Amino acid sequence: HFPPVLSQVPIFMISDAAEKIISFTNAVPEWLCKPRQEKLFSREEEALFGHVELLKEGRLFLFPHLYSKGLLAAWKEPCIVFCLDWSLRHSTAVHLLRRWHADKRNLLVLEQGVDTELTLKPFTPAAIQVLECSFLSGIKVRKVNPLLAVLKPKLVLFPEELKSWCPSKEDAPWSYLYYSKGKTIEIPNIREDFVVGLPTDVAFGLQPRQLDKAIAIARLRAKLHLSKGQYVLVAPKDQSDESNRQLLHWGAVDAGRLLSALQEKGIECAFPADNDDGSAGCERSILITSPGEALVKMAPDRTVIYCDDESTTKQIYDALSSVCNGI
């Protein structure tokens, strides 16, 4: 609640995450205390937090950037500035302090214990008033595990210094990782699949091959980019000639069909006497005697051509391509 003297004072929240943060406070119940959770689920008209009323009254303004449309029109001075980031060395704070530091009517509220002289050194001489205040945030250690039980995460990252306070539990359904300053850790990808965007011009240039009624595949040379939380495939403009690109094949090879394809090309070949039963899941071989000696071994997961002659190898590969699916 604000005293009457402050009833007309506007409040500006300047951050590219401002709208998301405000929306989060009224939509996600897990972090709320029990009384506020009950109020949220009961759908009472009364707002959970005071900032909702401030927004309705037009006293709280949310802007993503300092140059946002409408900010200058609503701007009023002098200002009271709450700054949790004590450095004042980056982002919007630098521009604002350059404007306000010489006006003693303005007030800068910093985190308690911050070296004020060091913080304001780039803005000297400074006439702005400075006040220290504690901005305690977070939760108590004993409430971490109950919160995790509600959120049910797949992976939890803790600071290394909290390892003794928040040890990993063997029966926990989630994994723990501990990080520390200056050290790199590998974070496993816990997503089983994800959606990838593809530019329209690239999509129309694909030549998909139908595998079944629901699936078609195509081949594309591109780089995977992550932009604003979304994956996008970006194809280079200098795409190589598709007709000269070697095919990629998949699926098990039918030994009988391959034998027929080789013989149609004039290649003398046969199944070895001890390897012609055709049992499912067994490795099979085709022995080639002319125009050069070669051996083709076919297993459920791979097919290998053994041959010293390049010309004969190409003929065998062409025959193999004619009986396999490829793109």
UniProtKB/TrEMBL annotation:
Say yes or no: keyword Cell wall biogenesis/degradation present: no
Q: Give UniProt keywords alphabetically.
A: Nucleus
State whether keyword Nucleus applies.
yes
Q: Where in the cell is it found?
A: Nucleus
The residues the entry assigns to the signal sequence are: none
Q: Name one GO cellular component term.
A: integrator complex
Chief place of localization:
nucleus
Gene Ontology annotations of biological process type: snRNA 3'-end processing
Q: What is this protein called?
A: Beta-Casp domain-containing protein
